[in-house]
Amino acid sequence: MGKEFGDRLQGLLRDQGVTQKDLAIRIGTTEATISRYVSGDREPKADVLANIATALHTTSDYLLGIERDEFDFPIVKLNTYGSVYEDEQAWANGYLEHVAFPSGNTDVMPSSPIEMNSADVPPTVPAFGVGAHTEEILQDLGYTQEELRQMIESGAAVG
């Protein structure tokens, strides 16, 4: 590990604008310990390495200098829903959009990542609400209007 780990760690700190003190606070250690990692004087244990990778949005493999070519499967950053919605690149590429619901509320939803020159991509629309088609479905099943009314009033069906 040693110096290569320290160089990669220092590069990530610099690129992300994170200080050694900030990283120390994030992972629950001291600034002096982070300084020793950067200088190559000390190597983190596996659990600390994982915490550093998580805090800096990378992988332990990257920090250790293990190249992707050494694996037969891709290694990528795992995103949470919250981090995707905050990702400027996802917004810039049009992968996310604000969608208005019939209730007047809005929410963020993923949009189509595929664009075709010969076809317009339809706007993203929210799914139908619970009960939006209850009456139609129950009528198709043979229920009368009076039976439907009674089911909805009693709470047995949502309409």
Task: Please explain how this structure is put together.
It is a single chain. α1 crosses α3 and α2 crosses α3. The protein starts with a helix and ends in a 5-residue tail after the last helix. With 159 residues, it is mainly alpha-helical. Strands 1-2 form a two-stranded antiparallel ribbon. Helices cover 47% and strands 6% of the residues. It has nine helices and two strands. The mean pLDDT is 82. The longest helix is centred in the first third of the chain and has 15 residues. It folds into three domains: 69 residues, 434 Repressor (Amino-terminal Domain) (Orthogonal Bundle); 49 residues, no CATH class; 32 residues, no CATH class.
Question: Could you name the key traits of this structure?
Answer:
mainly alpha, 3 domains, 434 Repressor (Amino-terminal Domain)
